Amino acid sequence: MTHHAHRHERGVTLVELIVSIVVIAIAGAALSGTLAYLNGTGNISILQAQAQSIANAYLNLVTAKNFLPDGVEASRAQYDDVNDYNGIDDVVAQDVAGNAAGNFRVRVTVGPGALPGLPAAAVRRVDVTVTYGNGATVVASGYRTNYPFP
After folding, report:
1. Which of 13, 52, 119, 145 is the most exposed, fewest CB within 10 Å of its CB?
2. How far apart are CA 110 and CA 45, in angstroms?
3. Is 126 buried (19+), middle (13-18) or exposed (0-12) by CB count in 10 A?
4. Could you tell me the strand order of the sheet in which 89-90 lies?
5. Are strands 136-145 and 123-132 parallel, antiparallel or unpaired?
6. Are 96 and 77 in contact (CB under 8 A)?
7. Per-residue confidence at 144, pLDDT binned at 50, 70, 90?
8. How far apart are CA 66 and CA 54, in angstroms?
9. What is the pTM of this model?
10. For residues 110, 114, 120 and 126, what is the CA-based torsion angle, rounded to 10 degrees?
């Protein structure tokens, strides 16, 4: 009875080594290209998202106010109707308490609006424009209606 000793060799061949290096190099190049792209656009995307959030916050604040004007208020803390916000130009965005909320310029315009089936006198269009970075802008627009309609 002879015993055949099976010898299990360990290690890799030169071809296997070269193939694995090439695969790792291709994956690394793809990953570094993706990371470079994200690094270049990520900051802009974050600023754009922040600007859009600020525009939406201002729009929500304005459209939550009463429709009918009741006079001109002396300070922003007293603004109680949608028309009071027309012409706001905040060089630096503000939160509801008046604190600076980032390096974003905010402009608000409130004017007549038109929606199908509603009387023109019962509609106000609100546009909030936020400028950031090197002059890029985002705009949030909405309508405030006088409901119930007169």
Report:
1. 13
2. 28
3. buried
4. 89-90, 105-112, 123-132, 136-145
5. antiparallel
6. no
7. very high
8. 21
9. 0.71
10. -10
